[in-house]
Prior knowledge:
Layout: H1 2-18, H2 25-31, E1 39-40, E2 50-52, H3 54-62, H4 66-76, E3 85-90, E4 94-99, H5 101-105, H6 107-114, E5 128-132, H7 144-162, E6 166-173, H8 178-194, H9 209-222, H10 227-235, H11 246-266, E7 273-276, H12 277-282, H13 285-295, E8 299-303, H14 314-317, E9 321-325, E10 336-339, H15 347-360, E11 365-371, H16 378-389, E12 395-400, E13 403-407, E14 410-411, H17 424-431, H18 433-440, E15 449-452, H19 453-456, H20 464-484, H21 500-510, H22 512-522, H23 526-545, H24 553-577
Parallel strand pairs: 5-6, 5-11, 6-7, 11-12, 13-15
Antiparallel strand pairs: 1-2, 2-4, 3-4, 8-9, 9-10, 13-14
Helix pairs in contact: 1-2, 1-4, 3-4, 6-24, 7-22, 8-9, 8-10, 8-11, 13-15, 15-16, 20-23, 20-24, 21-23, 21-24, 22-23, 23-24
Amino acid sequence: MREIVVGLVTQGLERLAGEGLLPGELATAFAQRSADFKVERPREKSHGDFSTNAALVLARMVGMKPRDLAQRLLAAMPGGEDVGVRCEIAGPGFINFHFSEDRLRGLIPEIRQRGADYGRSRVGAGQRVLVEFVSANPTGPMHVGHGRGAVTGDVIARLLDAIGCTVAREYYINDAGAQIDVLGRSVLYRYLECLGRDAVAPEDYYPGEYVIEIARALIERDGEAWLPAAESLRQAVPGELPKPPVGVIDFAIEWVMREIRTDLEAMHIHFDSWFSERTLHAGGGIERALAHLSAHDWLYEGVLEPPKGREVTPEEADGRTHLLFRSTRLGDDSDRPLLKADGTPTYFAADIAYHFDKARRGFTRLVDVWGADHGGYVKRVQAALEAMTGEKDLLDVVLTQMVNLTQGGKQVRMSKRAGTFVTLRDVLDETGSDAVRYWFLMRSSGAGLDFDLDLAKSKSNDNPVFYVQYAHARACSLEVKLKERELPEVAGDLARLTAAEELDLIRLLGMFPEMVEGAALSREPHRVTYYLSDLAAAFHGYYNNYRILDEDPEVRGARMALVRAAGRVIANGLSLLGVTAPVSM
């Protein structure tokens, strides 16, 4: 429906451009969603189905009063009556668009014809987008925070695909750095324990039972082959712990990554590529990124200086020289170190090298999904990427807040297996993939989320995912009842759909494509759950208030056509979320 209005306004702009009143590129910019004026749904129902502020935005450009320009634009648009649209000027210069009842009813056969493709578009055609998400350190099981990021990234990718983008999904494996050494030492400590040897926990280790599982698996494969390394760890002086053998580290990472892949597969999340951080170090990726920055005068050697209002870190206090990136040129609050005083790269150096690699692969847009604790990191990575590519808006970062789990009215704080947090697998085993995916998207990713485990697995209308799925099942049940009662299939006259609830339900079905587009472009997948909640409520109300099958054949046929359209849109929306649409419940 929105596309009809966009088409009318675009043609009007083109005609005014032909008359010399407006620049010709305005119509193109508007059609490509890059203009400053918009077509939107009015807040007041009396203001029509859509409204545009084009005349208000462009009036100053042409030196006209907004209402006068609105009149010119309205006269330049082709007759809206031809497509069932009545146009009027309102207020200071808005143009409102009212769809006729016949045009609204025309959505029903359109939905039937497009089927699973209803809601999809080509708005993003030509864009190659890489969505990187989850990227949990391979040091232990995924927790519920990782799960929320996983679902958020997966649905953003689904939405971008739905608007015609070419989308790739990538998992960045953080398999280098201090946390990997901690994992290796933790496994060796448990390895000694499992062999019945004296063992003292390292000063920094992972306490979860999963580490014992890794150690037992290592013993099963290699026996006592790693005893010398484990003994050297036990005998080491605190503060001078040895680096674990590569073989132990590789085994532990592979074990954890199998666990992570299993959890992701249980949520029907798949990746096109798995990028190892080690390859950046081993393949010269960091050196290439630094050389590129240096060649363009973005690096210098200097002493770290903390921004005002923050405590001095030990690195800043030692007064030693580091290789710094001039990130303050691009709005950061301080220049950032890429090489430490001893010449080893910082985490930031690896991160910008990774993003430089992404850009070199030819993607036109990068989307990262990070935990909210990385919020302060966004600006500096964007600044580095801009310095390396010259593109200011190449990287979008979506931050996800933590999840608060409750059961029996009490907060669930930790898992025995993980030791310090609730694992994603615990929640999946408790509620299932559909509930996990839907609940993780019920709020904006930037807002905290309360996840009620008892409610999420309940079969009641108070459970949001059950409520939406039940709406689809109810629509399907009418098909079954129609056959059971051997009622004749009649196409029905859609003109018999005259009730306000019916027309409002059709209007809601017509909002689906624009909702999909908006959710994709804004990287806000929670818009889909909001929409489905509204659609399910409207459908349940219609189902409860109207005897759909107990009408004369023409009315019954028309109402069944509306029911089928509603069921199709609910199914399409659930598909975007990666949630099933059951035919019975």
